[in-house]
Amino acid sequence: xxxxxxxxxxxxxxxxxxxxxxxxxxxxxxxxxxxxxxLRQPAKYRKEISETxxxxxxRMLYLFMRDREDQYPALVELxxxxxxxxxxxYYHSSCVYQSIGNDLTMQQIHDAHGPFxxxxxxxxxxxxNDDVIEKRLKERVADDGIENFEKNHLFREKVRxxxxxxxxxxxxxxxxxxxxxxxxxxxxxxDIWSHLxxxxxxxxx
Length: 205
Description:
53% helix; 5-stranded parallel sheet; Rossmann fold; single chain; 205 residues; alpha/beta
């Protein structure tokens, strides 16, 4: 495959959407000839997932796995045609969310995906401090509401803890890099770019 795959991961409220928007803007401005596809997961099964009780973790996991299996051929085709791909979450999020309070470990969830996942060249684990997350989630409530599990502070802390542990499992999750999004978004993008530039073969700008 000539294209490269990288992912943006992290708990709700850390600013992933803002990070993605700024990556798009920087690529368009500084590297307009680079073919980069931005994709979001879940895709095909988004409606079914949104209608499923989060406590039914086996059903949730099954739907996410089906979604990734369905998307797999398209990802391979894009990468083989020379496109780079940025995924807004991937199997890492299932390994975190579906393992909390359940009988499955992150390793087991990863392995259950079988051959229908690709290993990203790099995964950026976005995080922020408690005050920043609380502020962003309150803003989300004002805009369009948040999921019940996002309101649970203890659950959110468990999510953050598991994401922080991912770099320890390099054999499972390949290269994971922790990125702080506490301050200026320009500093966050600069940090991401320092890792992404050599992977995508871009000129530093």
